[in-house]
Structure formats: C-alpha cells, structure tokens
From TrEMBL:
Protein name: Lysophospholipase L1-like esterase
MF term (GO), any: hydrolase activity, acting on ester bonds
InterPro entries registered for this protein in UniProt: RhgT-like, SGNH_hydro, SGNH_hydro_sf
Top-level taxon: Bacteria
Signal sequence, start to end: 1-24
Keywords: Hydrolase, Signal
Domain SGNH hydrolase-type esterase per the UniProt entry, residue ranges: 47-193
Stored CDD domains: Rhamnogalacturan_acetylesterase_like (cd01821)
Family affiliation: Belongs to the 'GDSL' lipolytic enzyme family.
Length: 291
C-alpha cells in the first residue's frame, strides 16, 4: 500500500515538475512587445445656436459621423443664442474651459452665429454693423489666447421661398462673417453659400424633408406653387410667409415643422457639407475627417 501510494505521489510530482517549465515559459507575444507610439489626438469644440446644437442642428450628425476616433468632438451650441447672449449667460466660459489643450495636440473651435443676431429678438439681437462683427473678433482673439485654433462658419440658410426663389435673409450676417475671417486670417467654412445653393437647387418642396416634422397639407400645397407659408391658414387667402427670424423660441427643444431647424435627414445633409468644407479650410484636419 505504501509503495503504491508513493508511486502515485511520485508520478504526480514528476508530472507537475515536467509541466512547470512550460507554465513558466514567457509568451513571446507579451515579452517581445514592440515600442508603443503615443497617440496624437485633437479636439473640435462647436459653438453656436440651434442650427448647430443638439435637436435641431447639424452638430450631432457631424460629431457622430464625420470625425475619426483621433478627433474628439464637443457640441456646446445652444438654441436661441447669439454672439451676445452666448457670452452673457456664461456659455462662452464653458467653451473656454474646453479649449485648454491638455493632452490634445490641437483644439479647433468652430463658431457659427447669425440667426439670433437678427433684429426683433429681445435680449439676443445685435447690431450688424458693429456689434456682431465685434463679437466675432472677440471670440477669435480669445480662442487664440487660449491656445486653440478658431474656424468661423457663415450661418446655415433658412428654407423659405417666395415665388420659387429662396428668401436669403441671412446674407448680411454671412457677409459680415466672411469679412471678419478675411481680416483676422481665420479659416472659413462658408456653410451659408453651400447651403443656399443646395436648397435653391432642390426647391421648396424637396427642402421640406430637412425639417424635424412633416409639414401640414396646406404648407405642401403652397410650396408646390413656389412659396412657403407658416402655420396652416384657415383659408389659402390667409396664408403668409412664415417669419422664422421672429418665431424661433429661446432655446426651447421642439419637434415641429419649420424652415430653420433640422431633422435627421437635414442634419446629415448639412453635416456632410461642413465636413467637406472644413477639410478644405483646415487641410491638416483632413486625415481625421470622414466624408
């Protein structure tokens, strides 16, 4: 019995001893790891109004679909904001905090305003000749002082039509943005020019698909005749062109039909334009932008 027990124990120890070298042998895939190169990541910060913001703007689609994993994308745009009240309420302070380089190689700040700088919006409107461009200049200076890189965007067009022609009521704010970009040598994404050409080309009926909700039947009929109207009138004779510049609420998320804000299809369409224009304006970003 003792001999049998010893034999079994000895056999077990022998097997364990034979297996120890195999267990102790290093895995070549672990012991021979190549040197690791540190990643070089950058960040984009979006600053603007509802046409860039979550639920109504192109920003979410841009961040979700058009940047690589080496390009962080933070959307700080807010509905109802102008170049004045974005700063006055403290949103700009939050944006400045996001501009600190930290581990990022570069931080790019995309600034798009204009919709709420228009007249008729108490607490938001700015003077087109001096205040609006002055506010943009201040943003550019402070972005650079923070060590980040500014990019100015002209405002996204609205989609109102009159007799088959796009009502381009944001052209003066787009032109003011272009002038500031040229003056301060800031990269420019001319979203207004691209979006205006695209919407005019497709016409009032096709442009309706970019909204957050379906239009009323009366609105479709009016668009088929070449003009857009606001809330569905009781009779066709009562139809008037919708004044979106005055009708847009102060940062109130909504899922309603209008000619300014974007649903899923509209956000995707214009986000692709922003990505394309950004790659042209800032060539060093091209490798991390997805068409």
């Amino acid at each position: 019995m003792r001999k049998g027990k010893f034999s079994r124990s000895g056999t077990l120890l022998l097997l364990l001893g034979l297996s120890l070298p195999a267990l102790a042998a290093p895995d070549p895939s672990i012991s021979k790891r190549p040197p690791v190169s540190p990643i070089r990541a950058s960040k984009i910060v979006l600053v603007g109004d509802s046409t860039t913001a979550v639920q109504g703007g192109w920003g979410p689609a841009f961040c979700a679909r058009h940047v690589s994993s080496f390009l962080a994308c933070v959307n700080l745009a807010r509905g109802g904001r102008s170049t004045y009240n974005y700063r006055a309420e403290g949103s700009w302070d939050i944006a400045l905090h996001e501009m600190r380089p930290g581990p990022y190689q570069d931080v790019y700040v995309l600034v798009q305003f204009g919709h709420n700088d228009q007249p008729g919006k108490p607490g938001r409107s700015t003077d087109l000749q001096r205040e609006f461009p002055g506010n943009l200049r201040a943003y550019v200076r402070e972005i650079r002082a923070a060590g980040a890189r500014p990019v100015l965007l002209t405002p996204l067009t609205r989609r109102q039509f009159s007799d088959g022609r796009l009502v381009d009521d944001l052209a003066p704010w787009a032109e003011a943005t272009r002038r500031v970009a040229a003056e301060l040598q800031v990269p420019l994404v001319d979203l207004h020019a691209r979006s205006t050409a695209a919407v005019q080309g497709m016409g009032p009926v096709q442009a309706m698909r970019f909204a957050q909700a379906r239009p009323a039947p009366q609105q479709v009929v009016a668009a088929q005749a070449g003009s857009t109207i606001g809330m569905a009138p009781v009779t066709p004779a009562a139809a008037t062109v919708q004044a979106n510049a005055a009708a847009e609420p102060m940062g109130t998320p909504k899922e309603a039909f209008d000619y300014t804000h974007l649903g899923t299809e509209g956000a995707g369409f214009f986000a692709a334009i922003v990505a394309d224009e950004l790659a042209r304006a800032v060539p060093e970003l091209r490798r991390n932008l997805i068409p």
